[in-house]
Amino acid sequence: MSAPLALTVGEPAGIGGEITLQAWLRRRAVALPPFFAIDDPARLERLAAALGWSVPVAPIAAPAAAATVFERALPVLPVAFAAPVEPGKPDPANAKTVIATIETAVRLAANGSAAALVTNPIQKETLYQAGFAYPGHTEFLGALAGGARAVMMLAGPGLKVVPVTVHLALAAALAALSESEIVAVGRVAAEALRRDFAIARPRLAVAGLNPHAGEGGTLGREEIEMIAPAVAALRANGIDATGPFSPDAMFHAAARRRYDAALCMYHDQALIPLKTIDFDRGVNITLGLPFVRTSPDHGTACDIAGKGIANPDSLIAALEMAASMAARRANAASLTG
Which of 49, 126, 113, 28 is nearest to 77 (CA)? Predict the structure, then answer.
């Protein structure tokens, strides 16, 4: 991987800055690949000083400079905030800068200046107040990629989950489910497992929607009328899909060994087991994009921002996963090119 990773600021009043600093401090211990932050260098310097951390910050003019300074300083592609940043107090005045860092990272990843983008968590409510029109990162990135079918995957040690519906209220998520939607998401997931995780024949375990997967129709007919036909359609497309399985019995250790990813019907059905198994090392991945994007699988944690106690493990895992995914794509391109 020749190009560095691009790391966006996320919510500046959250923990993104301090986990970015901590990731750089651990760069040698975990052999992190070079990355650069898209942030305000002065803000990061003030934050490091306030926390008593020795983190030299080096403003850079272009991503290519990141590799030359990474070992001695944290490379930062500078941006400016409209309002002063105070830990724990998000300000909608800074929303445009937050959005701009995502747009910049996408542009750099798309043109090859960055090997991949890693996004620090955003405070969606604050962005909404500034007119942000997307439910979250996943949908925004799909739009920036020209309307690509963006699909969320959460990956951690021993489990990968893909929700069919994502940032929707539960009633709306149930209304949005359909056989065609399950098939479309399953196809994207299977292709990503092949391309980005080097799994030659991915196995998808498809969760039911109702308790006990509907109990033969007595607890709901979605499994019979929608999910089972979707599984059959995926199999007809050459994808090793099985199910629907009872959601309460498919995430224990023995069950997880029988599949490569679980296709879940809604957000919490996917995220609760993933975060329960290993909250600190989960990674959010956007599948279906022409570039690699990962993110820590946690929020902005504004309640602890600026205290120096945030755990950087998920960000470190996101950086490592982005690098490995980008390397696989680059290797595949060199073999076919």
Answer: 113
| Concatenated DSSP letters of 97-143 | HHHHHHHHHHHHHHTTSSSEEEE----HHHHHHTT--SSSHHHHHHH
Coil, strand or helix at 189: helix
Burial of 55 (0-12, 13-18, 19+ CB in 10 A): middle
CA distance 278 to 158: 9
CB atoms under 10 Å from CB of 14, counted, come to 29
- The rounded distance, in Å, linking the Cα atoms of 39 and 42 is 9
**Angle at CA 161, nearest 5°, toward 181 and 171?**
50
* Model confidence pLDDT, tens digit, residues 304-337: 999 999 999 999 999 999 999 999 998 877 676 5
Give Rg (Cα) of the chain.
Answer: 20
All structural domains of the chain, each given as residue ranges with its CATH number in brackets, are 1-150+292-337 (3.40.718.10), 152-288 (3.40.718.10)
* Residue with the two structure tokens 């489990």: 159
Phi, psi of 205 (to 5 degrees): -100, 120
Rounded to an integer, what distance in angstroms lies between the CA atom of residue 96 and that of residue 126? 10
Sign of CA dihedral 99, 105, 111, 116: negative
**Averaged confidence pLDDT in the chain:** 95
